[in-house]
Amino acid sequence: MAKRLTASSLAALALASLASASGQSVPAFLASPAKNAASGVEALRLSGSTAGLKIACDNSHTGISAARAARSCEAKVVAKATTYKDSRILTWTLDLQASDSNADSADFNAQGDQAAGQSGTAQAPSDAEIAERSKKLLENQHHNDAALEQYERIEHHVDRTGGAAPRVLDDKTYRVVPTGSGTMKLLLKDGERPVDPADYRKQLTAWVELLELMLKPDDPRTKSANAKWQKRKDDRKELLDTTRDAFLTKWDGQETCNGRVCDVYEVQPNPNFHPRSIVQDILTRVTAKIWVDRDANQLVRGEAHVMRDISFGGGILGKLYRGGVFFMEQREVSPGIWLPTRYQYDYTARKFLFMFEEHQYVEAREYRHIGPPKQALAMAQKELASGKAVYGDP
Hints:
Blueprint: H1 9-15, H2 40-44, E1 67-68, E2 77-80, E3 84-85, E4 90-91, E5 95-98, H3 103-110, H4 127-148, E6 151-160, E7 168-178, E8 183-190, E9 193-194, H5 197-214, H6 220-246, E10 247-257, E11 260-269, H7 278-283, E12 286-293, E13 299-306, E14 310-312, E15 318-320, E16 325-334, E17 337-351, E18 354-369, H8 373-386
Antiparallel strand pairs: 1-2, 2-5, 3-4, 6-7, 6-18, 7-8, 8-9, 10-11, 11-12, 12-13, 13-16, 14-15, 15-17, 16-17, 17-18
Helix pairs in contact: 1-6, 4-6, 5-8
C-alpha cells in the first residue's frame, strides 16, 4: 500500500502552508510499526526501530472513538475510529461527525485545552507575513525533527472504545529510546502493573545490543536500517516542504493556548496544487486548524481532518474513509526545541475486505537528551551495570 506519513506529520498536514513544528501525523495510515520493540530478537533484526514518533500497536483492537469539544471552536465533533494490524502494516483512517456533548470531550479538555476566545484587538498578518512565518515554521520543524533523534521520553499509550462510557482496551507505558535508525520501546507498565525487573533488564540489554550494532557501519543490517531510516526522513522532509504549495492558510485570530499567545490558522487544500505522488494526493483531502506560538513561531496545537476518502490500489488494497481527526499538542522541552506532549488518532478504514477502527491517544513526558548512538550506548551500558531494577530507580 502507500507510503506512511510519520507521526510527526500531523504538524505537516495540520500546519498547511505553515505546516510543522514537531509533531504528529495526519493520516499516518499504512505505517509499519514494530510489533514489540522491547523484544531482543526484534531489536537485533532492527525491526524494533521506528521512525520518529510513529505509533507501534501491540494488540489488534476494535473501538469507536469518543468526541472532542475544543473550547476555541463552538462546534463539537465526534471522531469515530478503528484499527486493524497485521504483522508489519498498520492501516488507518478517520470518520468525523457533528455531535452534541460527549464524555470524551472532557478528557481532551483535561489535557490542557485552555484555548481562550479569539482576541478582538489582534491585527491580521499580511500575506507576506504569513508566507514568512510559514517558512520559519518549516525551518523550526526540521530542527525539531533532527533534535528528536537524540531524545528519550516516556509515553503512555491508551486504546479505547468510544461512546459515553468508553472502555480501555489496552493501556501501556513505555520508555522510548533512540537507536540511531529510529526508536525502540521498552515496556515499563502494563496497565497499573510494573514490568518484571528481569524482563526490563532483557529489554535494556536488547537496546544496548542494537546500539552496538548501529555503531558497525559495515554490517549489512546496519546499512539496511540506516538506508530505510534516511528514506523516511527524506520523505518526511519532502512532505513538510510540499505543504507550502498544497494548502491555503487563513488567519483566524489569536487565542491563548496552554498559556501561550497563539495565532490561529485555518488550513484548506489549494485547488491549484497538482500532487505528484500518493502521499501528496493525501494533502488535497485534508483540512486543519493550527495554533502557532506568536513569539516562538512553533506549533502549540494542531487538529487535522480527512474530508474525502483516500483509496489505495484503486480501492482494492484499502481505503481511508472521509471524516476524522488527528490531534496533537507540543511544548518547549529545551531552548528552541518543541516536541509533542499529546497526540490522538481517530480513524476508520478498510484493508482488503476487512474494516477496522481505532481510538488511541499517546501522552509523552520526561524528555531527556541522551545524544547520538555512541553517547547513548555509554549511558545504557552504565545503567545496565548499575543493577537498577527498573527505569527511574534511584
